[in-house]
Structure formats: structure tokens, C-alpha cells
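Practice problem 4.
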């Protein structure tokens, strides 16, 4: 399996979001999210830059890809590049889980708890 495309999707829906889609030659894709609010367009450009380093790589080699992204430039990337790397990294884990037909939490050490407390912070949303 090889990475064929990495696409950033900045979205403004009451709040800014940046999602990243990593596509493969086998039709499996992963979705990741950046967490650097109000810098989504800068992160989207960093995603485009990082994609030049990792298109053609095997998405199952997550640690190798992470190291390639981190060390692919002379200077450290800072918040913007690290946020782009994180979104790509999340998408790679999504691909790996789909390819192996297991939930990502199993890849990361297994189920820790059966339920969690919900804290909705979406302007008046009801957790029900």
C-alpha cells in the first residue's frame, strides 16, 4: 500500500476546523484533524509541504513517516508544522486501523475504560 494524496480541508462552521485526508492506492483513506485554532490556513499549507516528503510511502510505517516529516527540514517546524504532522499522523492511524480491521484504540494498547464523562462545549448542546 502506498500514500497517493494528502489533502487539507479547512472548514469554517461557526468555528474554524482543519481536517486532513490521506489517500492510498488501495482505496483506503484516513482522516485526521489539526488542533491549532485560527491558524488553519497556515497548517493547510504545511500539510501540502509535508505531503511532498511522504507521498509514495507505505502508510503502515507510521513512525518512519513521522521521523521523515520531523527531520525533513533544516529548521524545526514549530506549532504550525507540528500541528500539520499531528493531523497526518492521526489519519495514518485511521488507515492502519481500517487496513487491519481493528479499532485504533487496539493499536494503541487496548481499551482502557468502558465509558467516559461527556463534556459538551458546543454552545448549548445537550449530551443526550
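Answer key:
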Amino acid at each position: 500500500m502506498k500514500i497517493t494524496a494528502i489533502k487539507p480541508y479547512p472548514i469554517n462552521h461557526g468555528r474554524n476546523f482543519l481536517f486532513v485526508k490521506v489517500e492510498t492506492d488501495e482505496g483506503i483513506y484516513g482522516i485526521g484533524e489539526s488542533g491549532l485554532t485560527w491558524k488553519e490556513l497556515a497548517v493547510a499549507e504545511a500539510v501540502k509541504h509535508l505531503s511532498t516528503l511522504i507521498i509514495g510511502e507505505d502508510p503502515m510505517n507510521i513512525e518512519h513517516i513521522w521521523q521523515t516529516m520531523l527531520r525533513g527540514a533544516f529548521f524545526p517546524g514549530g506549532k504550525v508544522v507540528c500541528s500539520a504532522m499531528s493531523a497526518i499522523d492521526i489519519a495514518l492511524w485511521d488507515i492502519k486501523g481500517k487496513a487491519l480491521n481493528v479499532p485504533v484504540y487496539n493499536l494503541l494498547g487496548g481499551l482502557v475504560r468502558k465509558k467516559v464523562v461527556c463534556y459538551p462545549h458546543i454552545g448549548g448542546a445537550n449530551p443526550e
